[in-house]
Design goal:
The two termini are 45 Å apart. 30% of the residues lie in helices and 23% in strands. By secondary structure, the protein is of the alpha/beta class.
């Protein structure tokens, strides 16, 4: 592992490898942060380790025997999770040579061992870089190189793409594999065996509250994923703002849902939130309507976190499945359509809590629950945050006027070594998530549109330029452009406009060939569900692509679903 020089006597960081801290935005480019509005945040000490606060504190309080994970073949207690996380942390340090500040890539679906690895990395003072299981080797290699990652812990079932990533990214020197339950039944799961043999005790690293705990990669309109860095205190802040004061979490809850732990939405909803209050979570590795119904019925789940697309899909099964245990439902990842909110309320009697958040700010910052819900509105700025509507110069807009949503509070955007994008996201101390909203006289925010070219499909953020880069690698493609197209089921879908080198090669066969090519290079959900073959792309006199003209056109669209 990389061992960068440590500054002797520096009380601000426990990191020996200071890569993350060295690549934070300069202070003048960071947003204003404020902890005074929420008592829990105002009381945070200067030194804290998020893993200790979420896990060890619960065990120390006598809750070690309390259930934390519900999972086929692995119903773990808090004490069992701590034991495994401590053992993995010891393996990381003693066998893999991890030092505080090293980044560790995590790859796997939502399961107990993925969570144990996350806690182990933080306990050892490392920086978690969790990735979705759908990512391909090309994407994983980029993350490894961008964050200077030498070690990856991966679910053994996703080994092939991880090996491919190592071949593409020489910096990725060591891979270790785990099973979903840590039972060691697969001989290739070397981390399971090492964990079982390791000492069951670990001295947690005394990290600073503002030591980087995780780097979450997200895609933007530039086409390259951006690393959003978050401190240990940020992990706790998302629990002590939305989860505590809007969701009103308690120890009696049993959570379930669909967002991956690699998304900060999923990290909060399905790991940090329940554990902050001593509750439990039912993990679903491959979320589908049937799988979520099964989890809710089997474990009598009380809290459901998912995207509007999944709520619409679940509506078809209501009446056939038992959802009587549910008391709270939260939606995020894309705007919640009013018809979906109303249909769910009619079918279940439950009002969906809509939430607006971003990877850059770790979790939800605008929402409303219970009697405070105003159907059709996203909600208000949650406790600890301020939000307002501004024009392009940052001047406040009056109620009813459209503008850019600006937010500030205890968490903020901190891009990894990306001053150019940092200056776009943060202006005058405010975070600009890229959403067009209007506010009413009562402080409720009403979503209007995205301010950039991000495609939000079924809760997934998809960068059009990233898909374009892959299509351009295909030998038949001369030029291409990717935009969002409206879709009644997914909200939006990826639509590609392609100029072929030989126009005679268009047709259904070419559509499938290009779609399969994209699926093989990047996560399958990013592939263009519609492809239009065109003679040329619309451009300005200076050669700039006119995407708005593509969105308004319907030329020769072909789709193979």
């Amino acid at each position: 592992m990389t061992r960068n020089p440590f500054i002797p006597g520096d009380p601000k960081t426990a990191h020996v490898d200071t890569f993350a801290r060295d690549n934070l935005p300069p202070p003048e480019l960071q947003a204003t942060v404020d902890f005074s509005a929420v008592p829990e945040l105002a009381a945070y000490p200067n030194r804290m380790n998020a893993a200790v606060e979420l896990l060890d504190v619960q065990v120390a309080a006598g809750r070690g025997a309390r259930r934390v994970f519900h999972f086929p073949g692995a119903d773990w207690s808090y004490g069992q999770l701590k034991d495994r996380a401590d053992r993995i942390a010891r393996v990381l340090v003693d066998q893999f040579g991890l030092v505080p500040g090293n980044r560790v890539l995590l790859r796997g679906p939502n399961n107990p061992m993925m969570a144990a690895c996350w806690f182990a990395v933080l306990k050892a003072g490392g920086v978690c870089v969790a990735t979705m299981p759908l990512l391909r080797g090309r994407e994983l290699a980029y993350v490894a190189e961008r964050a200077h990652i030498e070690l990856a812990l991966c679910d053994v079932r996703f080994r092939d793409e991880m090996v491919d990533a190592r071949e593409r990214a020489p910096i990725l020197k060591r891979l270790s594999f785990f099973s979903n339950t840590g039972a060691g039944e697969d001989a290739a799961a070397d981390l399971d065996a090492a964990m079982a043999k390791a000492e069951p005790r670990f001295d947690n690293v005394d990290t600073a509250a503002d030591d980087v705990a995780l780097i979450a990669f997200t895609s933007g309109t530039t086409g390259r994923p951006k690393g959003a860095m978050h401190y240990h205190r940020d992990v706790l802040a998302m629990c002590d703002t939305f989860a505590r004061h809007v969701f009103d979490g308690s120890a009696d809850e049993i959570y379930t849902g669909s967002p991956p732990l690699a998304f900060t939405f999923g990290l909060g909803a399905l790991l940090c939130f329940p554990m902050r209050f001593g509750a439990s979570v039912a993990f679903v590795e491959r979320p589908s309507p049937e799988a979520l119904f099964d989890a809710i019925e089997t474990y009598r789940c009380t809290a459901l976190y998912t995207a509007p697309t999944m709520y619409r899909a679940l509506l078809d099964g209501i009446g056939y499945r038992d959802l009587s245990s549910l008391t709270k439902c939260v939606s995020a990842g894309e705007t919640l359509p009013l018809p979906t909110f109303e249909a769910w309320h009619r079918a279940t009697g439950l009002k969906i809590i809509d939430g607006l958040g971003s990877t850059e700010m770790i979790h939800i910052f605008v929402s409303a629950a219970g009697a405070n819900i105003r159907p059709g509105a996203t909600g208000k700025a949650i406790p600890g945050y301020e939000a307002r509507i501004v024009d392009d110069e940052g001047n406040p807009r009056p109620p009813g006027e459209l503008g850019n949503l600006a937010v500030r509070g205890p968490t903020a955007c901190k891009y990894l070594d990306n001053a150019e994008r940092q200056q776009v996201y943060v202006k005058d101390g405010w975070n600009l998530p890229g959403d067009i909203y209007k506010a009413d006289e009562d402080g409720y925010f009403w979503y209007q549109a995205r301010a950039d070219d991000m495609i939000i499909s079924a809760g997934y953020n998809i960068s059009g330029p990233e898909v374009e880069d892959v299509l351009l690698d295909h030998p038949k493609v001369k030029e291409c452009a990717v935009v969002a197209a409206p879709d009644p089921e997914r909200g939006q879908i990826v639509k590609a406009f392609v100029v072929l080198r030989d126009p005679r090669q268009d047709g259904p066969e070419a559509v499938k060939e290009l779609q399969d090519f994209v699926k093989g290079e990047i996560a399958p959900y990013k592939y263009p569900r519609q492809i239009a073959f065109v003679d040329a792309l619309p451009r300005t006199e200076t050669g700039k692509l006119q995407r708005f003209r593509l969105r308004a056109s319907e030329p020769n669209t072909q789709s193979l679903e």
